[in-house]
Amino acid sequence: MFIGEYTYRVDEKGRVPIPPKFRSEELKKEGLILSPGMEKCITIYSLPEWKKLADSLTSGPIISSKLRKLNRAIFSTAFHAELDAQGRIMVPANLRQYAGITDDVVIAGANTYLELWSKNQWETEKAECQAEASQILETLEKH
After folding, report:
1. Rounded Cα gap, residues 12 and 17, in angstroms
2. Looking at the 3D structure of the chain, how many domains does it have?
3. pLDDT beneath 70, residues of the chain
4. pTM above 0.85, yes or no
5. CA–CA distance from 54 to each of 28, 49, 79, 83, 105 (Å)?
6. Cα 114 to Cα 134: distance, rounded to the nearest angstrom
7. Dihedral angle sign, alpha carbons of residues 41, 17, 46, 6
């Protein structure tokens, strides 16, 4: 489970450290998958979690045209990243540009995956999430 938030700086080569507590042997061996997130962030998946996502999008006898488009959008823009000896990953320039990442970043735990945000965008998103969290919880409790 990925929890917490961690602030780092992107280095001149586009590398970002993965928080030490998340650097498991599995991640060191298999690497990570980076993909554009829905809210202008980068989602970071372990390989097993990425495979679960892939399976959910490709299960079923016939894949609809909308699902094929979704698959193209998700899988064509994803990248495999490996942890270097210092626990950093290379974040491709096009993903950094998509997420507005230039220098300071936040890596936020999101349960089964991580999100990589520009620090400024994260502060805005975090405030919105916290403001809406109680309302969302209330609707969940009613069901």
Report:
1. 13
2. 1
3. 60-62, 142-143
4. yes
5. 21, 9, 14, 22, 27
6. 22
7. negative
